[in-house]
Structures are given as C-alpha cells and as structure tokens.
Amino acid sequence: MPKIGAEPIRKAALINATIHEVGKAGSLDVTVAQIAKRAGMSPALAHHYFGSKDQIFLHAMRFILKTFGDSVRDELKSNDSRSRVVAIITASFASQNFQRETVSAWLNFYALALTNTDAARLLRVYHRRLRSNLLVALRPMTSRPDQVAETLGALIDGVYLRSVLSARPTDGDSARQLVLDYLDEALA
Amino acid sequence: MPKIGAEPIRKAALINATIHEVGKAGSLDVTVAQIAKRAGMSPALAHHYFGSKDQIFLHAMRFILKTFGDSVRDELKSNDSRSRVVAIITASFASQNFQRETVSAWLNFYALALTNTDAARLLRVYHRRLRSNLLVALRPMTSRPDQVAETLGALIDGVYLRSVLSARPTDGDSARQLVLDYLDEALA
DNA sequence: TCCTTAATTGACTGATCAATCAAGAACAGG
DNA sequence: CCTGTTCTTGATTGATCAGTCAATTAAGGA
C-alpha cells in the first residue's frame, strides 16, 4: 500500500476526522485512537505524521480558521463598504462555517486557547485580521469604526456561542439577520 | 477532628477550589486531587461528599450561575425600565462575575454543556431567566423587545468570551460601556 | 463508660491513553 | 534483483486518575 505521497492525504484525513470527532464529542477528550479510526488508519500513524496529539489539534484549529478566512476573502470581492461588511458577516454564518460540529469544535478550541499558547496565538491572529477587515470597511461609513467593529466581533462570537448551545438546530440565516440588524442600527 | 457539621463547609470549600482550579488551569482537566488539595482535604473526602467528579463540576457551575443570578436580583431594585436593563448589564460585568478565573471557568462549563446534559439544562435555565428579565424590562421601551433581548444576550456572551481570551487584563467597565452603547443605539 | 455515627484518609484497583519501537510490506531507482 | 525509502501497524510501556474500601479518629448520646 505504500504509494508515495500519502502524507498530505493522511494529514488532511486526520484534520478532517479531528474536527468531526471533537465536534461530535463536544469535547477535546477524544483519543488519538478515535481520530485515527475515523481517518481510516492506526493511531501509530497519526503520531508518525503529527508527532503529538497537541499538534493534531493545532493543525485542525488552523484549518478551521483558514477555512473561515478563505470564505471571507471570497465574499470580499465587492466594492462598496457596506457590501464588504455584509460579506464578512455573511461568511461568518455561511453553512460550512456554521455547522454544528464545526462550531462545537470551535468552542473547544477557544477553551484550548486558555491553556495552550500556540492556540492562543492562532486565535489572536484571527481576531486581529477580522478586526482589521471590519475596520477598513467601516471607516467610510461611521464616525466610530473601532467601537462598531468591536461590537460586531463580540456579537458574532456571542451568536456562535448561543447557536451551539441551543436545543434548536443551528440556523445561519436568522443568526446572520440578527447581526445585520445591529449593523443597520449602528450605522443609522 | 470529626466536628459534626463539616459537610456544608467542606462542600463550599470544594466548590470554591473547583472554580479556582478550573479558572487557573483554563481547562476542565483538573484532577480531583488538585481540587481537594486546594480545599485542604484528601481526594477521598471529595468523593465522599460529591460522589463523582461530574457532580463536583455541576455544583460549581450551579454556584457560578446562582451568584450571577443573585447579583442581578440585587441590582433589580430600581423602578424604571431603563434602570432595570442597565442593572442586568451592570451585574453581568460586576467584578465578582467578571474575574478572569470565573470567566475562564464559565467558558469551560459552556464547553461541558456540549456533552453533559445536566450542565446543558443548567445553562438553559440561566439563559431563559436572563431573557425573561430582559424582556420584562424592555417591553415598555421598544417595539421589538425580543430582538433586542436576543442581541443583548449574545453581545454579553461575546464580550465575556473575548475578555478572557485577550492578553490585556479584563476590564469590566469598558465591557459594560460597550454593551450600554449598543442599548442606546437600539432604543434610539 | 460504651456504642453509634460522622469525618477522614492511605492504600489500592482498574481502566484509559499518549507515545514509542521494532518490524513488515510495498514501491522506486539503480 | 537488490537496496533504500516510505508507509504502516501490533505490541508494549509508562503514567495518570477516578473511584473504592477498610481502617482510624473523635464526638455525642444513652
């Protein structure tokens, strides 16, 4: 079976399996064995490619943040400011970012950032970038872009948090609408 | 040493120790031994009084939510609607609820609610009560109390989340101000 | 005094898991 | 065909911990 070039495929499978297992379990207490099994390989191989369980988590987290960043970039093609802000909000609640398992994994990685400095650094990069994107778009629209950006960021995080904890299935559209309504009020 | 009546004292000490250890560790991965040590007793005694580690966590979580509820009740003495909304917001960011360790413990209990149905139930009760309090206060002030209550709740959670993850020390006053500014916009 | 009951712990058990290692299997290049 | 490299796993180790239990201490009541 050793077709050369397995490494990137195996790594991707492990990252994908990690997000699903963490999301499904709702906890970082998933064993390397579980992850490896879902990814279709032995636990030893997972260690072979990533070195440690922490590294597996970190790469999974990086993947989530990168995916999010990519969807923001895709939506940021528009020219006028309002569209750009709306684009960021839309990306936040796009279905691939707002699936229950993804958000559940996301929450657990937030908790991980309390203990793991690498995770914290990743998260800070993501926050800074989101903030910067929002600021650029907001500056022409309001006299207090900093405050609106801060509020928008917190609101998005809060809506995420509540969505994953509510009993109802996650509804990206109404979540998006809530944030957009705030935006209209703030810019009125 | 068996002075009768140790139970409530021991339990309180364990709950307090749990919040501090979880907050300090930034994770629910604290051992019963750690908690018991901080509380000044043996791990066996902790099991004797609470039965299981899960029960220890659950009681600690209940304590945090109750403390929060108490501070809301204290602030809710006012008569006019606006003061009542402000009171809830103020209580949310009062120092005893907004200490780094408390918020850190809070975040981890949120994550716990993803797996533990008892924890989820506790959280739902808290959300429902907060929402109900906000609704009563908001109804005379706006034509869309549901939406404002939902946004306020999410915003508070989001601000909490960000406060514990930022490198800077947590600042309850500016957090409170951010939420109050939203309130003014929403009611304008 | 003696007996019951609460308080308390040290020692132990059983289970779980991350990480390691040595060895096997299959391909590519010479 | 060898030979080295990549891929892969079963078996094992070493450590950690939740939870149990039997035994000890001391108070309070009869």
TrEMBL record, chains A, B:
Keywords, alphabetical: DNA-binding, Repressor, Transcription, Transcription regulation
Record-linked Pfam families: TetR_C_6 (PF13977), TetR_N (PF00440)
GO biological process: glycine betaine biosynthetic process from choline; negative regulation of DNA-templated transcription
Entries under InterPro entries matching the protein: BetI_C, Homeodomain-like_sf, HTH_TetR, Tet_transcr_reg_TetR-rel_C_sf, Tscrpt_rep_BetI
Known DNA-binding region: 31-50
Molecular function in Gene Ontology: DNA binding; DNA-binding transcription factor activity
HTH tetR-type domain sequence ranges: 8-68
Pathway the protein acts in: Amine and polyamine biosynthesis; betaine biosynthesis via choline pathway [regulation]
Reported function: Repressor involved in the biosynthesis of the osmoprotectant glycine betaine. It represses transcription of the choline transporter BetT and the genes of BetAB involved in the synthesis of glycine betaine.
Record's protein name: HTH-type transcriptional regulator BetI
Source species of the chain: Paracoccus caeni
Encoding gene (name): betI
